[in-house]
Amino acid sequence: xxxxxxVLWFEEVSLKDVPRVGGKNASLGEMVRHLxxxxxxxxxxxxxxxxxxxxxxxEAGLEGKLERLLGELDTETMxxxxxxxxxxxxxxxxxxxxxxxxEAVRRAYGRLxxxxxxxxxxxxxxxxxxxxxxxxxxxxxxxxYLNIRGVEELLEACRNCFASLFTNRAISYRQDKGFDHSxxxxxxxVQKMVRSDKGCAGVMFTLDTESGFEGVVLINAAWGLGENVxxxxxxxxxxxxxxxxxxxxxxxxxxxxxxxxEKKVVYTEGGAKATTREVAVPAEERRRxxxxxxxxxxxxxxxxxxxxxxxxxxxxxxxxxxxxGELYILQARPETVQSLRRGQVLETYRLQxxxxxxxxGKSVGNRIGAGKAMVIKDAHAxxxxxxxxxxxxxxxxxxxxxxxxxxxxxxxxRGGRTCHAAIVSRxxxxxxxxxxGDGTAVLKEGQDVTVSCAGGETGLVYEGILPFDVEQTDxxxxxxxxxxxxxxxxxxxxxxxxxRIPNDGIGLARLEFIINTAIQAHPLALLHPDRIADxxxxxxxxxxxxxxxxxxxxxxxxLAQGVATLAAAFYPNDVIVRMSDFKTNEYAGLLGGAxxxxxxxxxxxxxxxxxxxxxxxxxxGFLLECRAMRRVREEMGLSNVKLMIPFCRTVEEGRxxxxxxxxxxxxxxxxxxxxxxxxxxxxxxxxxxxxxEIFDGFSIGSNxxxxxxxxxxxxxEIVAHLYDERNAAVKTMIADVIARVKRAGRKIGxxxxxxxxxxxxxxxxxxxxxxxxxxxxxxxxxxxxxxxEVEKKQNARKAR
Length: 800
Description:
The protein has 800 residues and is an alpha/beta fold. It folds into 5 domains: 190 residues, ATP-grasp fold, A domain (Dna Ligase, domain 1, 2-Layer Sandwich), CATH 3.30.1490; 141 residues, D-amino Acid Aminotransferase, Chain A, domain 1 (2-Layer Sandwich), CATH 3.30.470; 128 residues, Phosphohistidine domain (Glucose Oxidase, domain 1, 3-Layer(bba) Sandwich); 170 residues, TIM Barrel, CATH 3.20.20; 122 residues, TIM Barrel (Alpha-Beta Barrel). Helix content is 38%, strand content 21%. The strands form 6 sheets. The protein has an 8-stranded parallel barrel, surrounded by 5 helices. Helix 4 runs antiparallel to helix 6. The radius of gyration is 30 Å and the shape is elongated. 51% of the residues are buried.
């Protein structure tokens, strides 16, 4: 066999060479050859080919031995799997490499030494010939060796890689996927190391890993070499970047979430046997993001270049060299979970009961599972795992895969959304809650638990077996009505998943939800912490704003990220954002809020909505809201965001609010900015034509409009029985304002509760000619079907 068949440089291979160099090395060669001009840096290196592996087996007389041992295999029995795997690996590790192969590796490594110095550091990675196929990831099935120095270490690492084709998890995975063990060969990639031990590293996906939403790049990052992120040994920083407006030249960093990053993997110096070691990350580094905004955006651009070339969603490993500051791509493979679930069936899981929450973390997927908890803290004990239990552990690695597939659900202490437990759980369709911190401590062996990932990004572990149901909807057969069907949605965590439901955008995005959950503090308290008498509250604000130059920057950043996530999920459809509409008692309940809010007898009809925006008692806070909205539209490019003024009592008050917005750079009409007004006060109906002169559209708030027409407090239990949006007076006013607004040439929709609660009310609105209905997400599909029927009846009447 010619020496050139045993070693090939990355520049010499491409995707067509998977049978020769495996999926990983073929992909590296593809990027080196085709994506370098696009700015994709790949560390140089070479592949020890699959032909070399086969030569090794043949010359060492191992082919027959492997066949005999695999004939004894029973992957359902952990002891048998472990025994067969151990004997095969021992045989491969003890066999000598063929002389021709050893010489070829020495010569290739010598070329790297000429370029990077004697005993230069390399990563040695396994690359199986059945790896990274569109429907099978094989991620982590074989071994990787980092910071290998000198040719003798390299030759040993090559032999160890060959042996790792038969790790227990690799044998089990191939068996489950139906691959013939003898038909799969192994190539070894030898690649110059990136000094991310002095910088940071991680993984990124060109879609949202939970919902399958393809409009974003999801980046995970941690200090040191990237193995801890891949393995889920740390809770990494997480960044979400929106691809469509990134391509237009904007800076759409939708979210940046700081991870705890307690440990990092670095080089071992001084000739120690172990080439890497794990060390604690100093507290100051843990409180810092690994990447600045421009670096996150640059990684996202590289991810888009790679995705465009491969024409499919991708799973990418990257590293930042701490010496040069350069960003490198270390691997790229097809994403093999969400990209295969592009069908038209929407699956919705709903809990039907309540229980005590025992643990929380990040949710993987959107499913629910239940069973008895089985706490296994160590991979050596996985043999005792019983099918149908909830696996509770610190973290998983590929050795756990044979038992993970038998679990009802998985709970881990550590890990981010791109860790091993998350990737495998998605592939298996299992609910998984990662990064609980204390799952193995608070969940007891044999305890009945329910693991729910159905409520957005936060996964919950409940005590007891709770009932749940699953609804399946075939989206491919659903027509679209003439009337726009939009959603009421304020929770950014649910946005990507809910955007799959056929819709025409968001008709009401409440800022209050984001302020309550992501910001927690009163905007004026963030601007003027010195006015807060309570020292404890001041300290809490200091902790909230850690890492920001001041409270104003924190408020603007968090609010912009929340709104941008909503806008990106539904892009390019309209997302109508209602500026803040807390009542004074609700504002006072925010951190530090009591120092800035008056006490009112009836906050429901007091200092709220538009009246706050131009009043010196809140004007500074409203300007912060405007800064955030301007960032979303102008810096992130999400011009589908439209703004809405709530509780606007008079036309003059509307003008004053618009003037403050214009002062903040949000001028109605500029760059296509539309501003709507809530129609929730009788004066909005009576003076509809006047409001239509200064606003682009109306959204009926049936909740407030009903209470003000009927003269009752909807929070009062005593008169609650009189509260009904279907009252004739309310319907008369609504029909009237729809007609008048349409005559004035403006758009009008509804975002109140009534059409979500009462199908007949939705029909009434369509009959009146309303332009859009904005509904609670769980009623969108059913109401869409109902509206289609109403419109068909209308069409039939017109035809007659």
